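Human: Not sure, check this?
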Amino acid sequence: MDTLLHFVTLVLHIDKFLDTFIRDYGTWVYAVLFVIVFSETGLVILPFLPGDSLLFIGGAFAATGKLDLSVLIALLITASVVGNTVNYLIGRAIGPKVFNTHLPVIERFLDRAALQKTHDFYARHGGKTIVLARFIPVVRTFAPFVAGVSQMGMRRFQFFNFAGALLWVLLLVLLGYFFGNLPFIQQYLNVIVLVGIAAAVVPVVVGGVWKKLRKNPHGDNVRRTNGNR
């Protein structure tokens, strides 16, 4: 619980954390930024890292001269592209094997029809999904993994992977560069970060609640039927 609280506090005050880190460790901050963006895009177990907020705040620090804008953009694009590629390769290597184990215990929890639908969806809309997913927290973490599982072609994936990374990084870093240090933005920076966290968490929660609600009516009907008997 204390670890979670510390993490939330760190995320909410990530601007202060970066400011202190830059002051104490200088250019090592670039390595930290690389690792965070790489981890969010490359590891499916870390979808809640504050990628959007980090890009925006990084741009704001570049505007003050504490970070080099060109180095920051190049570094974050690289981290984003490499992260997505690793995620894709993991999905490509693991996905088919997981769905072809023929072990009853595993296959009980897997849906071959869903995998086929995913493959067909990426065949039709995979490119747009990879690009647009960059701007949707949580989704951007899982999109490259699913693309790998569905066996999307490497060349096609990398084209849209780079295009999405370029748009995502340039848009958010430059927004931070030009607007991040405005008094109004500084005053409500915590709110902006909270909105970013909510954008990541709320869809997952709503999806879980919706799934549960869809199951309950059926369960209620079964109970009523049994009661009538």
